[in-house]
Amino acid sequence: MLADEGERRAQAGTLDSEVHLPGEWMNALIGFIGSVLPGWRDDPRRPAQTSEDALTAQLCAKLASASRHTPGWDFLQFRREEPDAADGRRAIDLAVAPSGSVIWIEGREYTEYQTLLPIECKRLPTPKGHKRDEREYLYSRFSTTGGVQRFKAGHHGSSHDRAAMIAYVQERDIPSWAVQLDDWIDGLESDAVEGWSAADKLSLLEYDPPSRVAGLSSAHARSSGLGGIRLVHLWIEM
After folding, report:
1. DSSP alpha helix (H) spans, 123-209
2. What are the sequence ranges of the domains in the chain?
3. How far, rounded to the nearest angstrom, does the alpha carbon of residue 221 sit from its chain's CA centroid?
């Protein structure tokens, strides 16, 4: 999903300890992650879970296994609760990093100690609770726990210009949530919430009803003198 199958096959084969990849390779990586989602959700051996932490731990295990057994992706590792490179007090839900290789993308070096792609995971809808904002996938009025909010503020991925978010859709369907998020962003703009505008809206790129998985994209200006960041959103109906 979100990547050409031929591009993925082109990476297959024995890898040297130093790998040079084109910039668009990141699209193939995100496509690989999206392709794993339906099989993970539908795996009869997967224990039933609803919490974000438990689902993300399961998904991390599935991605690690899938990459290890898929030619062309076996030089990657997936890690949970990885300290952010710029602010070690904050943890990234999922991080993709090299495993046993040094990867170069557009002149930038990544070792097993550097994150290739930071990923934030959220539930839709946001669980009800004290000081929980229903818009938490985007923004929270109570804290800095909003998913997109964290990237816009540079709290996550400040050293990256690209990141991803995964939504575990536990009620309603994906198209209705795409409309809902548009409405929330309109509300943030009309309420003059600093830094939010219609430019932050997500674009639905691809929705596959049989697999109940979708890909969306968004682009956001950031504060603190950082350049913009592009987010790819992978949503799966649970």
Report:
1. 147-152, 174-190
2. 5-237
3. 18
Other CB atoms within 10 Å distance of the CB of residue 133: 17
**For residues 11 and 73, what is the distance between their CA atoms, to the nearest angstrom?**
8
The pTM of this model reads 0.90
Both structure tokens of 208: 């596959």
**Average pLDDT, rounded, for the chain:** 91
The alpha-carbon radius of gyration of the chain (Å, integer) is 17
Which residues contact residue 202 at a Cβ distance below 8 angstroms, ignoring those fewer than 6 apart?
178, 181, 182, 216, 217, 218, 233
120 in Cβ contact with 92 (< 8 Å):
yes
Q: Which of 207, 114, 104, 220 lies closest to 161 in space, CA to CA?
A: 220
Strands (E), the chain: 18-21, 76-83, 91-98, 102-105, 108-110, 117-124, 162-169, 203-208, 213-220, 229-237
Task: Judge whether 155 and 125 are in contact, CB under 8 Å.
Answer: no
End-to-end CA distance of the chain: 17
Please report where in the chains the tokens 């699209």 appear, as a residue.
27
Taking the C-alpha atoms of residue 122 and residue 55, their distance in angstroms, rounded to an integer, is: 10
DSSP single-letter state for residue 34: H
What is the CB neighbour count within 10 angstroms for residue 143? 11
Q: What are phi and psi of 18, to 5 degrees?
A: -130, 125
> Can the peptide bond before residue 22 be classed as cis, meaning omega within 30 degrees of 0?
no
Would you state the pLDDT for residue 223? Answer: 83
Among candidates 79, 78, 179, 80, which has minimal Cα distance to 124? 179
Only one residue has tokens 């794993």, namely 36
7 pLDDT higher than 50: no
